[in-house]
Amino acid sequence: MTSTSLTKHARMTILVIEDDRKTGDYLKKGLIESGYQVDLVRNGTDGLHQALANSYELIVLDVMLPGIDGWQVMSALRAKRDLPVIFLTARDQVSDRIHGLELGADDYLVKPFSFTELVLRIRTLLRRGVMRESDTYKVADLHVDVLRRKVTRKGIDIVLTNKEFALLHLFCKHQGEALSRTLIASEVWDMNFDSDTNVVDVAVKRLRAKIDNAFEPKLIHTVRSIGYSFGEDS
């Protein structure tokens, strides 16, 4: 760890809410060595209190906690605060991951985990957090509430999957820009896809069916040989 890296993170404080003593101590020690200040709490009730009473740049949160569980902590936290949260848990079912993200978590990492991967994810979220995005967007008669994951058009509720919402959120942040399929794949799926994979086009088609097909004006536009743009004008 270089002195420059330590200085960069020195003022960033992370709250770890983890009841397993060995895991909690390991996380605290490792994150301190990575240049962060760390508060460690071992139950959900105290963790929520700490999260609401203090200023943290990020929270690492377990699900299975004494007191109130991680789901309850996340729900109560999102009602009052907007800061990056990573679930770090042994709950490895897809339904658990979806539930955590739907509650408003920014990331979900399953135990056993790579500490290096955790630190990389933390750094990614903190970089994003330097430039906080808008919590709400209005494009024509489309309304997007990012924190509540709520989408309406002409006052009609529109239910989106996590990936559809992530795609719409990306479009909202880059209105009027031509976004390539590669960029969309990287941002929404956090990975690169081969050029012959049509996952982006399929996802856009599904999103169009929900937010565009029955409405005017159309908001999603195909940009020939590039990808897609979003907004009232093509």
What does this structure look like?
One of its GO terms (biological process) is regulation of DNA-templated transcription. One of its GO terms (cellular component) is cytosol. Residues 134-232 form the OmpR/PhoB-type domain. This is Two component heavy metal response transcriptional regulator. GO terms for molecular function: phosphorelay response regulator activity; transcription cis-regulatory region binding. By secondary structure, this protein is an alpha/beta fold. It folds into 2 domains: 3-130, Response regulator (Rossmann fold, 3-Layer(aba) Sandwich), CATH 3.40.50; 136-230, Arc Repressor Mutant, subunit A (Orthogonal Bundle). Helix content is 42%, strand content 21%. It is built from 9 helices and 12 strands. A 5-stranded parallel sheet has the order 2-1-3-4-5, with helices on both faces. α5 (94-102) links the parallel β4 (85-89) and β5. α3 (44-53) runs parallel beside α4 (70-78). The longest helix has 16 residues, at 115-130. The chain starts with a helix and ends with a strand.
